[in-house]
């Protein structure tokens, strides 16, 4: 790591964490944020920068590497911003210790927020409720865990969640908690909504107008739930609020590798070739649920109707934010 013009060297923890996020080894908005903050702390701890400017450049480069992995979950830039803004001091030693402290306090806040949010979300669930889930969300599961701790008995209908089948992770967790689980394919959701008392999902980002950006399929589920009269709750700590949407920006939806949808072998079965450009396969990872289909957004600060989330967003982020990892 040098003070010169060369791009600062990245700690292996940063490179590995970025790779894990990009390949979804590490996934889910809160988990991604936690891993990114930990990687920045590793970078800070291992830095041998010889000047404060070199140290800051190094941390910014690490943040850029982590930032450029997945575009939709705002928890990632929010985590990076928190650590970079908490990195203060006039010496390398001060910068290093403040960066590590900021990362640690970010990670502790994240755990605390999830616990608090879980207790709020649990209050929306009644003893004997059947809860339908989509994808795998640690914020949503925190609500179920807290309800179980309150002594409520719950059952779950778990949507498989194509193409990556994160529903299996949810099912595994729920079975560990001894919650009876019915696993269904995504296409069966509308039919099984008749048996559900609640739909409970997480969020990757929440826009200023209360729109919820979450795993592809959430919006269709929400529309169907509204049609069936099943309440839909979004569990999302405030880390999921997308400050850029305060100033009119939209949330980028990640397009992932189409091979997650159709393998080369499967494609050959359709086209006899693995390079037929006239067969278009698309794989958007997230979608946008308009606020009118959501009953409540549950955060560590309490529950909000989606349309009023902008007030909380302004309180927490002011008029907007900048990106401190940019040079
Ligand atoms: C995960 C997903 C989750 C949110 C919230 O998508 O959409 O619902 O990230 O998760 P992917 P959490 O699997 O593509 O990362 O509540 O754990 O932050």
Description of the structure:
- With 327 residues, the chain is α/β, with parallel strands linked by helices.
- Helices cover 43% and strands 12% of the residues.
- It is built from 11 helices and 10 strands.
- The strands form 2 sheets. Strands 3-2-1-4-7-9-10 form a 7-stranded mixed sheet, sandwiched between helices. It has a 3-stranded antiparallel sheet with strand order 5-6-8, covered by helices on one side.
- A hairpin with a 5-residue loop joins β5 and β6.
- The site of ribulose-1,5-diphosphate has 18 residues, from α2, α6 and β6.
Strand percentage lies at 5-15%
Q: Which percent range fits the helix content?
A: 40-55%
Shape: globular
Summed over residues and divided by their number, the pLDDT gives a mean of 96
Give the uncertain stretches in residue-range form. Answer: none
* Assembly classification: single chain
How many β-strands, per DSSP?
10
Q: Between the first and last Cα atoms, what is the distance in angstroms?
A: 17 Å
The string of secondary-structure elements, in order, is: HHHHHEHEHEHEEEHEHEEEH
Major β-sheet strand ordering? 3-2-1-4-7-9-10
Estimated structural class: alpha/beta
- Could you say which small molecules are bound to this protein? ribulose-1,5-diphosphate
Rounded to the nearest angstrom, the radius of gyration is 21 Å
Number of helices: 11
Characterize the main sheet.
7 strands, mixed
Name its key features.
3-stranded antiparallel beta sheet, 12% strand, alpha/beta, binds ribulose-1,5-diphosphate
How are the SSEs ordered, and which strands pair?
Blueprint: H1 12-22, H2 29-46, H3 52-67, H4 75-85, H5 92-122, E1 130-133, H6 138-149, E2 155-159, H7 167-176, E3 181-184, H8 189-193, E4 198-201, E5 205-206, E6 212-215, H9 218-228, E7 232-235, H10 264-271, E8 286-289, E9 296-299, E10 302-304, H11 309-317
Parallel strand pairs: 1-2, 1-4, 2-3, 4-7, 7-9
Antiparallel strand pairs: 5-6, 6-8, 9-10
This protein binds ribulose-1,5-diphosphate (RUB).
Residues 27-31, 73, 135, 137-140, 166, 202-204, 214-215, 285 line the site of ribulose-1,5-diphosphate.
